[in-house]
Amino acid sequence: MELSTNLTEKAQRDYKLICQALDLSDQKAYADLMNYYKDSLYFMMLKMTNDPDDADDLTIEAFGKAFKNLRQYTPDYAFSTWLFKIATNNCIDFIRKKKKNTFSIDKSFDNDNSFEMSNNLPSYVLDPEEKFIEKQKIKMMREIVERLKPRYRRLVELRYFSEFSYEEISEELELPLGTVKAQLFRAREFLYNILKNSQEKI
Predict the structure, then answer these.
(1) Is residue 113 part of a domain?
(2) Which residues pair with 116 in a beta bridge?
(3) pLDDT higher for 82 or 199?
(4) Among 96, 113, 164, 186, which one is least packed by beta carbons within 10 Å?
(5) Exposed, middle or buried by CB within 10 Å (0-12, 13-18, 19+), for 56?
(6) What gap in Å lies between CA 105 and CA 181, rounded to an integer?
(7) Do the beta carbons of residue 190 and residue 148 sit within 8 Å?
(8) What is d(CA 65, CA 189) in angstroms, rounded to the nearest whole number?
(9) From CA 37, how far away is CA 62, in angstroms rounded?
(10) What's the number of domains the chain is made of?
(11) Residue 174: domain span
């Protein structure tokens, strides 16, 4: 790829790191790119979602998508522009899905005939067959998690099975917050690859 002369010094620095990441599989180059933009990206996600945990997850997802598709990046514009566009689009999709699946239990509204209507929550109870299938899914997921290295396995168990926040995991494992997030990002990658290569359907 030919480097555009219109790029700022910062954008040229990023492009060199991208080349190192792609051509030399340089893990430090990936880490440097992440370190340069993780804070500003996080605050943008936080502004859009107003939820620290969602912002954390979306920040990691954005880097995951960007790094996975890094060969598609062209240096006609800054890497940061490309990264933030990926993050924004991903966040908008997330917010849409969240709104679609969320509604107020006690909100009431008027219909065209001025009759007041209210949302009634149906009782969702799994029948025995559904309960069995759900248990099997959880069992299979746990078996896949067991294939991870111990440190990654513990992180996934705390985050997704025990539903710890990043801060709680940091305290529990006595690790810096940044390390927890970076290792969880790696753990997700490993899980994805295990699932992708597995013949089992979950």
Answers:
(1) no
(2) 110
(3) 82
(4) 113
(5) buried
(6) 34
(7) yes
(8) 11
(9) 11
(10) 2
(11) 126-197
**Amino acid, single-letter form, for residue 157:** E
**Can you name the residues that pair with 117 across neighbouring β-strands?**
109
Domain with 170 in it: what CATH number?
Answer: 1.10.10.10
DSSP the chain: -PPPTTS-HHHHHHHHHHHHHHHH--HHHHHHHHHHHHHHHHHHHHHHH--HHHHHHHHHHHHHHHHHTGGG--TTS-HHHHHHHHHHHHHHHHHHHHHHT---SS-EEE-TT--EEE---------HHHHHHHHHHHHHHHHHHHTS-HHHHHHHIIIIIS---HHHHHHHHT--HHHHHHHHHHHHHHHHHHHHH-S---
pLDDT tens-digit series, residues 47-89: 888 888 888 888 888 888 888 888 999 888 899 999 999 999 9
What is the total residue count of the chain? 202
Structure tokens at 98: 């969240």
pLDDT in tens, 98-109: 877 654 434 443
Supply the CATH number for residue 95's domain. 1.10.1740.10
The backbone torsions φ and ψ at residue 112, rounded to the nearest 5 degrees and listed phi first, read -60, -30
Cα(146)–Cα(140) distance, rounded to whole angstroms? 10
- Distance (Å, rounded) from C-alpha 162 to C-alpha 126? 22
Which residues is 60 bridged to in the sheet? none
Could you tell me the two tokens for 160? 């997704």
